[in-house]
Design goal:
heterodimer; A: alpha+beta; VC0802-like; 6-stranded antiparallel sheet; 5 helices; B: about 425 residues; 9-stranded mixed sheet; 4-stranded antiparallel sheet; about 25% strand
């Protein structure tokens, strides 16, 4: 399946819950590479990509967190005006809807790195290829 | 009009006991001959119809429980062939099964008589316009009260429940004299009327007859002050008949039981023995005249007291004081019976495993609220908030369609709700009645 594995964690809006997740990961020597949170008044969904997703899922489950794995697209684009716009316009043109999007820090620090969750990863990948945007693979993202 | 049926409402007690005894003897013979479930129970208890010679023999008969109704769902306890049944009503049941009741033409006639008696005792006169905001349908409230008001000769406005803005307009434009609904809904209507600038004095209503849920004296005072009415309590259970089994009079010191039709006993719920006269206990009814769906010694699980002294209004009938509560787990939310198990049934549809959940009941601005918290599991969870919101919305819609109430749903983390050892307690009822 195209894309990078992302772990989502369900969190009640309660003091200390997010810290409980990061503590669990820290204790197990797991590094968070990318992160975002979506929230409502009652709950939030934490989305993370780590340097050891399998282990992260295991240790979070042991702590009874509700987790879910899904695949997202990671891209690297020039850090300049219009770069993201070009990608989103291309998706829009092909009728691919973006569920959410977040940026994270890359190794080089020169290009911008972005995670995009679309409704169809395979078609999304095609579109990105057609406009010459390279996809980041899971291996690449994990490279320290 | 002071009495609708003075003969029966003001009967001297020896005469009343004689009438009740005759009716009981006939009833017992009839159910023994016509309802296999009753015959079986009586045979097992070693009691024959001829052992029952009067009301003093009532304790020889076995109790009828809600579970008997369930076991004989839907029509097993009916005592007449279906073609004699003129109306069916039903109320929500504990296992997803409804409690089904049937009325012959004669039963409907008795029912509307009982309601007419109650209306007159509350001060409703023939010719009054009566706004009925109970739900019409399988629920006994709407159609029961409707028939009673019709028989009394009132101008009935069958507004049914819901659509508060329209109800307010009907009250403003039609200027009804009396209103029938749940007391909490009446308070809600009062609030809406006040928001539109109405003062208690310019609201046309004079009398309110409220029932189908427990309510307090404080609530009565609030209703009377906010609507400028006399607020009276009406009692009934669909199993026994529906609203009108008992109703207050203008004295408002207990609800007069229509004793020529219903025999009441008050028992200790643990031992089944009669309590001393005037003491608190579980109400048990025998329907003396019902043809379609007679009940013998039906345990209501309503806890209250019954007093027998003569009322200042002139009626001699026994009075039931406001029930203090129910001995089982049923909730009455805005007049609708809700069992926690019904909520559970709905939640189970959304997952393969039994979910942990809690039900929180409260009363805000005199309006009952019900919220369900349910623990999230992996089958539910998505990285997309819109999916989770959609799930909550689907649960809400399903609860609403099955239970008939708007119930809030909040998803919470696994392990965050209380666990129970032994019998679980899924309900936190914070209403102050």
């Amino acid at each position: 399946m195209a894309g990078i594995r992302q772990i989502s964690v369900f969190l009640s809006n309660q003091a200390g819950r997010l810290a409980e997740v990061t503590k669990t990961l820290a204790e197990n020597d797991i590094d968070i590479i990318a992160l975002s949170i979506a929230d409502t008044a009652q709950y939030g969904a934490l989305r993370i990509i780590t340097d050891d997703n399998d282990k992260a899922i295991r240790v979070l489950k042991e702590k009874s967190f509700v987790t879910k794995i899904n695949h997202v697209l990671g891209i690297e684009i020039p850090n300049e005006p219009g770069a993201l716009s070009k990608v989103l316009l291309a998706f829009d043109e092909k009728g691919i809807s973006v569920e959410y999007i977040y940026a994270f820090v890359g190794k080089s620090g020169i290009n911008a790195r972005v995670i995009i969750r679309v409704n169809d990863n395979d078609r999304g990948t095609e579109v990105l290829r057609s406009i010459g945007i390279p996809l980041i693979t899971e291996d690449e993202i994990l490279k320290k | 009009m002071k009495f609708y049926d003075k003969t029966h409402e003001c009967m001297e007690r020896p005469e009343l006991l004689k009438l009740q005894s005759e009716r009981l003897v006939a009833l017992v013979k009839k159910v023994y001959d016509n309802v296999p479930a009753y015959r079986k129970k009586m045979d097992e208890a070693g009691v024959a119809p001829e052992d029952i010679k009067g009301v003093e023999d009532i304790t020889k008969l076995p109790f009828t429980l809600k579970s008997d109704l369930r076991d004989n769902y839907p029509f097993g306890l009916f005592a007449v062939p279906m073609e004699k049944i003129n109306r069916i009503h039903a109320s929500s049941g504990t296992t997803g099964k409804q409690t089904v009741v049937g009325y012959t033409k004669g039963d409907l006639d008795v029912w509307s008589d009982c309601i007419s008696r109650g209306f007159v005792s509350c001060g409703i006169e023939p010719g009054y316009m009566v706004h009925v905001a109970y739900g019409y349908g399988l629920f006994t409230g709407g159609l029961g009260v409707h028939d009673g008001a019709t028989k009394l000769g009132c101008s009935v406005v069958p507004a049914s429940s819901g659509n508060t803005a329209r109800q307010v307009t009907l009250i403003e434009d039609f200027k009804p004299d009396a209103i029938c609904c749940t007391p909490s809904y009446a308070l809600f209507l009062a609030e809406e009327l006040r928001k539109k600038g109405h003062k208690p004095d310019d609201i046309s209503l004079k009398v309110g007859v409220f029932g189908a849920e427990p309510w307090s004296e404080a609530m009565r005072q609030e209703l009377e002050a906010n609507l400028g009415i006399k607020a009276c309590d009406i009692y009934g259970l669909s199993e026994i008949m529906g609203p009108g089994v008992a109703c207050e009079c203008e004295e408002r010191k207990g609800m007069h039981l229509q004793e020529d039709h219903f025999l009441v006993e008050v028992i200790d719920p643990n031992t089944g023995e009669h309590v001393k006269e005037g003491e608190s206990g579980e109400l048990v009814f025998t329907t003396l005249t019902k043809e379609g769906f007679p009940l013998i010694r039906y345990r209501t699980r309503d806890i209250s007291r019954v007093i027998y002294d003569k009322c200042a209004c002139g009626r001699t009938t026994a009075r039931i004081l406001k029930p203090q509560g129910r001995s089982d787990d049923m909730l009455i939310i805005r007049g609708v019976n809700v069992f926690p198990s019904q909520v559970e049934t709905v939640l189970m549809e959304f997952s393969e495993t039994s979910p942990y959940y809690m039900i929180y009941v409260d009363r805000q601005n005199n309006h009952d609220t019900m919220e369900v918290k349910v623990e999230m599991n992996e089958a539910f969870f998505s990285d997309k908030i819109s999916d989770i919101n959609g799930l909550e919305a689907r649960m809400k819609a399903r609860l609403n369609s099955l239970i008939g109430l708007s119930i809030g749903v909040t998803l919470v983390e696994p392990g965050s709700l209380p666990r129970f050892e032994g019998k679980s307690k899924h309900v936190v009822d914070s209403r102050k009645i």
